[in-house]
Amino acid sequence: MLKLRFLKIPVAATYKLIDMARDTIGLMDALGIKSAHLVGASMGGMIAQAVVSAARALAHLHHVDHGQSARAAADPRSGSHADGTAAEDQGGVHQRYGQTWNVLRAGHFPEEEALDPGCAERVFARGLNPAGVGRQLRAVLASGSRKGRLHGVKTPTLVIHGTVDPLVRPEGGKDTAASIPNPRILMIDGMGHALPMRFWPEIIDAIDKHAHGAAAKAA
Questions:
Q1: Topology of domain 2-75+143-218, per CATH?
Q2: Which tens digit of pLDDT belongs to each residue from 138-175?
Q3: Which contacts of 43-50 are long-range, i.e. CB under 8 A and separated by 24 or more positions?
Q4: Is this model's pTM higher than 0.85 or not?
């Protein structure tokens, strides 16, 4: 699928990012939530962008985004771990889990690596759905670039991106920020596509300050 995208061949998908964005808006409506701060990582950031684009009629909708533009090039190694394939046996799952997150972390994080076996165990016990992963990837690739719609975003936006992200290159985060009027951008040195615990304080503090600042402006 990634090869199709790079060759600019259309990718068929059962659903796209806009469908998941509409689901988010529909859930907010059903729960009586008129406004919200949105935080999304990886594809979640892309969905958050789509929500803001689709819900401009909602008053005071604030967008806090770890998002990327769809045109950013990926490291082939990381793409091979996001193609929807997975080992089905328990041993294979454990091995692939560690390999995948070592690539996405883009560095040596002993505290995270020590947790990988337990996380892999829980993933295996919960159940695997390789076809579902494939559908999610197709949804991203079939949705195309969001740049044109991002130019109209008026909500306060924070873009957070790792400087060594192997899946969506740092240029993608910078391109997202450049496509949105008056954003804030935080490039976290040494962070890849994953969110290792050592970076949590910086990420949480940035989101907290951004959300409070956005709320104050809206008041």
A1: Rossmann fold (3.40.50)
A2: 999 898 888 888 888 888 999 999 999 999 999 999 99
A3: 43/17, 43/136, 43/139, 43/140, 46/17, 46/70, 46/140, 46/143, 46/146, 47/17, 47/20, 47/21, 49/146, 49/149, 49/150, 49/153, 49/176, 50/17, 50/18, 50/20, 50/21, 50/143, 50/146, 50/149
A4: no
